[in-house]
Structure formats: structure tokens, C-alpha cells
Amino acid sequence: MDDFFVFLRYKNKTIKFKVTDPNTELETLMSNLRKAADNTGTRIFDMPEMVDYVPTEYFFGKKDEATGRDIILQPRVGRSRKSLLDYNVKPGETLEIISDPIAG
């Protein structure tokens, strides 16, 4: 399989990110991304667990080519876990990282 790279954008920063297996569940990819560090040991993105004392989750989002609308790549639909390929993400696409406060 050829290398599968996507561009990830969070706030004002965009990086090129290699996905080893595009069939990996989105929950696992996000967990790995939250821990990912550059060659200096600094985390690539600052994605805090809490924002303004509110627990926060993070999701991938992309623009739907057919409708032009933004969609959130839900990590699960019902009991089914989803991957990048389930959302037809292609190498070279740009995905947004979206923060979502957890309602309490």
C-alpha cells in the first residue's frame, strides 16, 4: 500500500500526517494524534482535556464534496466503529480537528 497522508488543520496550524492504516478506527487515530509529538518532543497540537473547566472531545471534520457542507466524521454510528475509509477520505485531503465540549 502506498503511503496515506492527510493534512490536519487545528486552529492556525496545518500539518501533513501519515496514517499507517486508513482502516484504523477514528477513535484510535484521534487518541494517537493527541499524543503525537514532533522530533523535539513537543506535542504537535495542544488539545487540552478541558477547556474553560468543561471536558472536551475532538473529532475529525471535512467538507462533503457532493453538497459542499461540512461534516463531522463520527467515530461511531450505532455500535459500528468508523474509519477514514468509511467516510471516503482520500490521501492528500485536508481534515479539520473540531473541539466539542461535553454537555454536563
Tell me what the structure shows.
The protein has one domain (4-101): Ubiquitin-like (UB roll), CATH 3.10.20. With 104 residues, it is mainly beta. 10% of the residues are buried. The radius of gyration is 14 Å and the shape is globular. The chain has one helix at residues 26-35, and strands at residues 4-10, 13-19, 50-51, 54-63, 70-73, 76-77, 80-81, 94-101. It has one helix and eight strands, in the order E-E-H-E-E-E-E-E-E. Strands 1, 2, 3, 4, 5 and 8 form a six-stranded mixed sheet that branches. Strands 6-7 form a two-stranded antiparallel sheet.
Question: In terms of topology, how is this protein built?
Answer:
Elements (H helix, E strand, L loop, with lengths): L3 E7 L2 E7 L6 H10 L14 E2 L2 E10 L6 E4 L2 E2 L2 E2 L12 E8 L3
Parallel strand pairs: 1-8
Antiparallel strand pairs: 1-2, 3-4, 4-5, 4-8, 6-7
Care to give the gist of this entry?
This protein has 104 residues and is mainly β. It contains one helix and eight strands. Strand 1 (4-10) and strand 2 (13-19) form a beta hairpin.
Which descriptors would you attach to this protein?
Ubiquitin-like (UB roll); 8 strands; six-stranded mixed β-sheet; mainly beta; 1 helix; 104 residues; two-stranded antiparallel sheet
